């Protein structure tokens, strides 16, 4: 894993761009789910709500990435690439975002916690995205 150069500005920029798109997709489903369960009366545990938020975040990210990739690929290839190249990144992103929310806001989505969730969600998968891009020239966008 350490047989690549970690100092390439161009690769960091491309990895950051890819991570940003993944973060946008994940955040839509994640924040939407958490907010939904904050405004309705329910008996689900906060951990089940967070699990649903992670699942919905993964779904919306795959949908967004597929749409972006369809500019270059046919649908079947676009969705396949969205699943294969981004899944580890998306899962780590979702876990980081929801752990941040749980630790610092008890799972309550507030305007003050969102920037920290986004920061954690961006930074966590970024080295992995850089590595895949540098080592295998694989990118999801």
Overview of this protein structure:
The chain has helices at 9-39, 46-69, 75-105, 114-123, 126-136. It has 141 residues and is mostly helical. The protein has one domain (23-136). The longest helix has 31 residues, at 9-39. The chain is globular, with a radius of gyration of 16 Å. The two termini are 22 Å apart.
Kindly summarize this structure in a few lines.
The protein has 141 residues and is mostly helical.
Average pLDDT number: 92
Distance between the termini: 22 Å
Report the sheet-strand fraction.
Answer: under 5%
The Rg value, from CA coordinates, equals: 16 Å
What count of domains describes the coordinates? 1
Shape: globular
Structural class: mainly alpha
Poorly predicted spans: none
Question: What key phrases describe this protein's structure?
Answer:
141 residues; mainly alpha; 5 helices; 0% strand; globular
List the helices and strands and how they pair.
Blueprint: H1 9-39, H2 46-69, H3 75-105, H4 114-123, H5 126-136
């Amino acid at each position: 894993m350490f047989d690549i150069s970690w100092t390439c500005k161009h690769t960091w920029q491309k990895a950051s761009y890819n991570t940003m798109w993944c973060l946008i997709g994940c955040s839509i489903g994640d924040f939407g789910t958490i907010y939904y369960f904050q405004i309705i009366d329910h008996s689900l545990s906060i951990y089940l709500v967070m699990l649903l938020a992670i699942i919905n975040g993964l779904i919306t990210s795959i949908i967004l990435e597929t749409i972006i990739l369809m500019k270059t690929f046919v649908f079947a290839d676009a969705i396949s690439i969205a699943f294969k190249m981004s899944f580890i990144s998306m899962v780590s992103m979702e876990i980081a975002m929801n752990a941040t929310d749980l630790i610092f806001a008890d799972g309550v989505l507030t305007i003050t916690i969102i920037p920290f969730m986004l920061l954690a969600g961006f930074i966590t998968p970024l080295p992995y995205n850089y590595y895949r891009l540098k080592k295998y020239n694989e990118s999801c966008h």
